[in-house]
């Protein structure tokens, strides 16, 4: 075997190994973004946000307008999540999961996650606003007493 043939086969082997590695990395990345994985993140975010919202209501940290608006948004996001969940869980094989991924389901779940994170941030901001309001009110009362 001459050196040109060896060089050619070495290059082909290197290309095959490199291509296989790149494909494996891409599939691994895509697999972490499959709808079956992303829907779990959405459900965790919704549960966390629901808990924060209920805690804010129990502690009377939200006025009626905020409570109603946030409650409606949470119900809407929960309904949307149920539709997305049914699509994600209907993909029973890896091939179907990738088909849903390529069909945009993971993107839709990502958008829903974004909206849930916005709502969660609104609830947390309401906590801080209420706390600051209470602190200012206490400072004013203390100042008036002295």
Write the topology of this structure:
Elements: H1 3-32, H2 35-58, H3 64-90, H4 94-102, H5 105-145
Helix pairs in contact: 2-3, 2-5, 3-5
Transmembrane segments: 12-30
Keywords: Membrane, Transmembrane, Transmembrane helix
Structure description:
The chain has 146 residues and is mainly α. The chain has 2 domains: 1-32; 34-145. It is 90% helix and 0% strand. It contains 5 helices and no strands. The longest helix is centred in the last third of the chain and has 41 residues, at 105-145. Keywords: Membrane, Transmembrane, Transmembrane helix. The chain crosses the membrane at residues 12-30.
What letter string, H or E per element, gives the SSE order? HHHHH
The low-confidence parts are none
Distance between the terminal alpha carbons, to the nearest Å? 100 Å
**Oligomerization state:** single chain
**Average pLDDT for all residues:** 83
Class computed from helices, strands and strand pairing: mainly alpha
Characteristic terms for this protein:
about 150 residues; mainly alpha; 2 domains; about 0% strand
Short précis:
This protein has helices spanning 3-32, 35-58, 64-90, 94-102, 105-145. By secondary structure, the chain is mainly α.
């Amino acid at each position: 075997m001459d050196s040109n043939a060896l060089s050619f086969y070495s290059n082909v082997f290197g290309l095959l190994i490199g291509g296989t590695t790149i494909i494996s990395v891409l599939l691994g990345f895509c697999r972490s973004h499959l709808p079956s994985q992303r829907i779990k993140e959405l459900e965790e975010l919704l549960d966390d946000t629901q808990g924060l919202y209920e805690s804010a209501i129990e502690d009377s940290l939200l006025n009626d307008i905020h409570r109603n608006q946030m409650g409606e948004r949470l119900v809407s996001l929960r309904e949307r999540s149920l539709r997305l969940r049914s699509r994600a869980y209907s993909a029973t094989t890896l091939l179907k999961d990738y088909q849903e991924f390529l069909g945009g389901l993971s993107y839709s779940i990502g958008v829903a996650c974004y909206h849930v994170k916005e709502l969660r941030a609104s609830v947390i901001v309401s906590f801080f606003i209420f706390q600051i309001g209470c602190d200012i009110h206490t400072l004013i009362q203390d100042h008036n007493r002295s």
